[in-house]
């Protein structure tokens, strides 16, 4: 097990990462203040891990659960209401603790319920997907979707502790595991060339669920996110580099309808597009772009864009991206592998050519 | 005009108090960052002050409004949703500002919407009732009711500025004005004997809406609340003295059904009961109790309990109060006028006798 301490605002919390953490009572009990615990999970995760988490809790605790249906469409006000209702029906007081057991949807909606129940109660995250382990563990973003937009209602609310059990990743579908790796690769590309090399060298071990390599990968990813967020807590500047590949990726997700491709799959193609565009600006060379492509492929990620989206439509959809302030497209590009910059330097004709010539199928 | 600065956590904000503040553009404009402003008010307040507030906003701003129905039953998730929907329909971004124009319900629900829209946007309070001017202006509590309890969903969220215009009190029904005075008198009783004397000396001027006296009264009240909250931001100890009269008062409200008596009316009788009980403990003398009674009467507040609630029922309802941890009733009592203490010293027989002998009608 490795432990990383996230230090934001006035409060810090540990992220414990390693195999079989859900068998270690001592990792959870010290972080629970009152006697009432509500575990929020979903129908997919509950049969796998709910009993394990319950067994981690001391006998004198009142433990209850809310089991939501699985899926992004349940990151909703209705789900938050279900949690509030359950807390109130069972007389949970303001010293209670909510535990989010599941992926990003469960983490976000549970965190939001915790942030707003009786003006804020304790919150613990047990992320069970690679994406949520490397993304939602750091930053304190909680929230729900609104019919008019994702994450439109929410709050910043920090967990008391995060347990990222690498063993839970073995029950994750391959496609979702690879999608999580897209975010991992992103951290290397934007911030840490050494980490990128590590990923290149150990991708086979990662995909074979080697516990110590996975632990290292998750800790490094969380550390990079923590460093970037720490430099820019208010999201005005450098934090935007966390969106590498996202403007391209959102265009793909939007064109195909959300859910057709996993977010990480769209980001994979988006990052390769960003690298290619960085090559056009002569920031990267051909070898750099090939390295990015090989790494994404080795992670089981797509490196070709959907043929059904033509270039004009693609650029239109990129313009919808909220990061665009002026007329020029504002993008995260790579001056070098391991370094990112938010820029409007790429002329539209160059962006167009990049998308036009990008391999499709 | 007087200005009080509230200094909590990492952020401080001014409360401006005085007559006709709603005619002074310069008090609002400096606190609005973006270009989008949403005014939230209700059907009673809108015809009186909405146009005035709109006229305070610079021309280049996009100004919109949500007008809720009047009443405590609209301090609900539905109202918060109406605000979120309006913000999203009109494309309000995370640099927008929400202005709460109205009493406590409007302030609480608007503050909650602001705390949670896109994980938190700017918030300005223009309280138009005496109660909200002296109570909700300080402390940062926002929230909505749930069918199972008041203020069960909410967040701490501080306003950028508060404008308490004493002229708005002249349109307030007499009963509501008096109910607000109950909270004002409470601040004197628990914290400041000099302020109490001031209230005794100037009650006629207060009830005649003398602007400079009202301004002084509101500033002093907010200052006392700020001092008490500052000493105890996490609500573990001394802050509880703000509940003087509330355990008795809640019993009355609960017995008669919420809304039969105004909260301040129930608190008035509750404070006199607390003073009487303090007399039984020999903390106060007869003269002290008479002074409290005369002051409440001069403010137009009730000093007799409802005859329909017998003593046994009264004590039962007091036990429901959330402040009770042990078997003994935990109450805020007065060691002297201008000084309060949370105590379990009063034996139940003494509490019973106090309620039993208390004047009723």
UniProtKB/TrEMBL annotation, chains A, B:
Residues 180-324 form the 3-dehydroquinate synthase C-terminal domain. CDD domains: DHQS (cd08195). Its EC number is 4.2.3.4. NAD(+) binds at residues 70-75, 104-108, 128-129, 141, 150, 168-171. Keywords: Amino-acid biosynthesis, Aromatic amino acid biosynthesis, Cobalt, Cytoplasm, Lyase, Metal-binding, NAD, Nucleotide-binding, Zinc. Its cofactor is Co(2+); Zn(2+); NAD(+). Residues 66-178 form the 3-dehydroquinate synthase N-terminal domain. This is 3-dehydroquinate synthase. It comes from Larsenimonas suaedae.
């Amino acid at each position: 097990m490795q432990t990383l301490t996230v230090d934001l605002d006035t409060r810090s919390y540990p992220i414990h990462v390693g195999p079989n953490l859900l068998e270690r009572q001592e990792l959870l009990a010290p972080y629970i203040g009152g006697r009432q615990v509500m575990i929020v999970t979903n129908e997919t995760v509950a049969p796998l891990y709910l009993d394990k988490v319950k067994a981690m809790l001391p006998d004198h605790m009142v433990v209850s659960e809310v089991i939501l249906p699985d899926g992004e469409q349940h990151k909703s006000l209705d789900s938050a209401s279900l949690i509030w209702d359950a807390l109130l029906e069972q007389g949970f007081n303001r010293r209670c603790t909510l535990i989010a057991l599941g992926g990003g949807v469960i983490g976000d909606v549970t965190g939001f319920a915790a942030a707003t129940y009786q003006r804020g109660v304790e919150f613990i995250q047990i992320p069970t997907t690679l994406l949520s382990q490397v993304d939602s563990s750091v930053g304190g973003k909680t929230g729900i979707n609104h019919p008019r937009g994702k994450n439109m209602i929410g709050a910043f609310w920090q967990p008391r502790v995060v347990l990222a059990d690498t063993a839970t990743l073995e029950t994750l579908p391959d496609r979702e595991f690879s999608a999580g790796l897209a975010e991992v690769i992103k951290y290397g590309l934007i911030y840490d060339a050494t980490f990128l090399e590590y990923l290149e060298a150990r991708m086979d071990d990662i995909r074979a669920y080697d516990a110590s390599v996975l632990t290292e990968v998750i800790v490094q990813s969380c550390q990079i996110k923590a460093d970037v967020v720490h430099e820019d807590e208010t999201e005005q500047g450098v934090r935007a580099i966390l969106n590498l590949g996202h403007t391209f990726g959102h265009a793909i997700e939007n064109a195909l309808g959300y859910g057709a491709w996993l977010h990480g799959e769209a980001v994979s193609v988006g990052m390769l597009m960003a690298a290619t565009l960085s090559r056009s600006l002569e920031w990267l060379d051909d070898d750099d772009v090939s390295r990015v492509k090989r790494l994404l492929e080795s992670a089981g990620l797509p490196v070709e864009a959907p043929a059904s989206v033509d270039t004009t439509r693609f650029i239109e959809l990129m313009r919808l991206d909220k990061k665009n302030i002026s007329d020029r497209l504002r993008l995260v590009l790579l001056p070098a592998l391991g370094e990112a910059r938010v820029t409007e330097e790429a002329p539209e004709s160059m962006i167009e050519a990049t998308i036009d010539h990008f391999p499709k199928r």
